[in-house]
Amino acid sequence: MISSVISRLNDRRDAAADLGEDAGFTLIELMVVLLILAILLAIAIPTFLGVTGGANDRAAQSNLNTALTTLKTAATQNNQTYTGLTAASEAANEPSLSWSQAFTGTAASVTTQGPVDFYVSALDGNGVVVVGFSKNSSACWYAVDNLNAVSNAANNGPYTGALAGTAGAGIGSATQAPTDPGTFYGKGSVNSGTTGCDPSKAPVGAVWGNSFSAA
């Protein structure tokens, strides 16, 4: 559209030059071009931001899947338990990721796109919570894998919550990681009082499912 407008304006300028008139654009013509540019930018910028945000989410999800696969493989080789797995050991297993590990009572969070952080169920080693940060609305993407039912008790990081002991508590809530056996995925917000995602703390507003689409 804009190329045809500019082409017509150039033709008009050339015709004016042939007649010996001053070549150039009138104020109205320039304003029309600027208006068209403004309309195109108004359409293109939101589309670009939407595509960028989706790409950030997919990158965080991809890193989570890679981290979870690495951790599950390590647990299989560790007598079916996550106990004893560390950020250093997993960095050796999957050096393409930047790893950190959170503990109950020890603050550790990811605040940038790319790194992953994980928490091992402190009371039984049956479960692991992995989290990644997405620049898209500062979202926290979670992956939880429980080899067996995880103890829901005090001092067990995100595996404690208001729904402990009530119907449906095992599938997780906006303040509790799932404690039932299986693999779960969710999306939440950054932890209160921080700028990042901490897997050792209760999730903030997380919606859990068996796939990322459920979040």
Protein described:
This protein is α+β, with helices and mostly antiparallel strands. The protein has one domain. 34% of the residues lie in helices and 18% in strands. It is built from three helices and six strands. It has helices spanning 2-18, 27-76, 87-93; strands at residues 99-101, 116-120, 127-134, 139-146, 182-189, 204-209. The protein has a six-stranded mixed beta sheet, covered by helices on one side. Helix 1 (2-18) packs antiparallel against helix 2. The model has no long low-confidence stretch (mean pLDDT 83).
Quick recap of the structure?
With about 220 residues, the chain is α+β, with helices and mostly antiparallel strands.
From the spread of the alpha carbons, the general shape counts as elongated
> How do the strands line up in the largest sheet?
1-2-3-4-5-6
Round the mean pLDDT to the nearest integer and report it: 83
The tally of beta strands, per DSSP, is: 6
Low-confidence stretches: none
Give the radius of gyration. 27 Å
Strand content: 15-25%
What's the helix-strand series? HHHEEEEEE
The largest β sheet comes out as: 6 strands, mixed
- The overall number of domains is 1
Q: Distance between the terminal alpha carbons, to the nearest Å?
A: 40 Å
| Secondary-structure content class | alpha+beta
Q: In which range does the helix fraction lie? A: 25-40%
- In DSSP terms (H or I, runs of 4 or more residues), the helix count works out at 3
